[in-house]
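Data card: per-record layout.
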Amino acid sequence: MVRMLLRRRLIRQFRKNEDGATAVELAMVLPVLLLVLIGIMELSIGMFINTVVEGSLREASRLGLTGQIQEGASNDQAIVDMLNEASLGLLDLTTGNVTSLVYENFASVGKGEEFTDIDGNGVRTETSVTAEDGTVYPNGEPWTEVNGNGVWDEDFGEAGLGTQGDIVLYTVTYNWNFLSGQVIPILKGTIPMSASIVVMNEPF
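The structure for this 204-residue chain is written out next.
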């Protein structure tokens, strides 16, 4: 009988004992807090990089806008160098990450010739396609010819920096790598990011 009473008393004391409860709670909450903090840091750095790229692209576009010729490097490479320098070493862009398309006017920026999306996949099919009424289009889905060159143009822009008075769209596309991927393998990955600006070349 005495032994049972002692056992019950020990069990009651054990239930009431809260020693180490804080450590257990911290162990449960800490991983979540760390993930949230790392996520905030990743988001902040990503936003910083994107803002820096947009700002430096605005400055770099002046090379083409004013017709300045760089010594010892092409204007494309000079633009890339300016972007890399502004990113504080966090980016390693190449000329392949930067594109410049020339347009006749602002209204045509980012636009192309319209087409009839017969198969409904959102992109123009260039191989033979059959409509619901049985009509066969052997040369792909029909499009509305605008510039008279005889081929479908997804985008009216032509690669280059243009000449005086031209409208130029500068675009930077790159993948931002998770910095935390080096520490926490489960977070390893990339985020596709881009920045663009449209300018009109000055007389030069």
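Known properties of this structure: The chain has a mean pLDDT of 78. Strands lie at 98-103, 129-130, 136-137, 158-159, 167-177, 190-200.

See the next section for split statistics.
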